[in-house]
User: Fold this.
Amino acid sequence: MTTTPNPVLKKLGLADNDRVAIIHTDDIGMCQASVEAFADLNETGIISSGAVMVPCPWFLHAAEYARQHPQVDLGIHLTLTSEWKTYRWGPVSTRDPASGMVDEEGYFYHLSAPAQEHGDPAAVELELTAQVERALKAGIFPTHVDTHMGTVAHPKFMGIYVQLAMKFHLPPMIPRLDEAGWRAAGLEAEFAKIAAAFIQQLEGSSLPLLDMLGGMNLDTDENRLERTKQAFSDLQPGITHFIIHPSKDTPELRAITPDWRCRAADYQDFMNEELRQHIQKIGVHVIGYRALKELMP
Assistant:
């Protein structure tokens, strides 16, 4: 992150050293279990935002929930990858191989690297726009845009991502990293320098940005509640986009992904009143993306 305090904090009526978390549910609509978990967590759990995957099979179920709960803080999880082995999805705008977005099976690539390497920027722009437009048409009032598996965080796509956010008046999930921060995030030195200058330009235009991306990895469910509490205790001053992947434990979820235990644990933990009390006790402020949407220039 940059060394200067985030100007968004003052606009939100907070102090420069306040710790703020957007508790964010990823992958909504990936499967039925993700939608059901989000519904429970939105109504009685400990989340403040989430994002839906438009190309996925259970998107319509998520959209139905959003129509029934128009005040829900739900963004678009812009999707250019399809990571699972036997459960796949592809673009909503085209299936033309010339787009560079589909693999030999006709779906999005499994991983970000080939999606970034092969994706034609013009085709990607059409696809990401189509995903936002499909969400709007389905009756969702999105609060933000973010990126599945970080795929848009690439020189070919970042400009498209920001332009899309501005076009639809949606805050984008972008951390305000300096050059060293972007290098630590895995960018090559040349692009890290460009990215840092780009961030300064965006902040100069009053685009509300984040300080950090954090959350719970999908590595192990062992001691997950205690590790989640520790992750909140370790938050630094500024605004953290805190990522979780909650789903109900269903046969479908178990068949899709080997990390189902972590996803089921996230659901249980963020329904747990003990975690809510911990977050309140340590003084972390919880906001949603709607607060940032209201600050969009």
In short: The longest strand covers residues 19-28. Residues 121-137 form the longest helix (17 residues). The chain has a mean pLDDT of 96. The chain has one domain: 7-293.
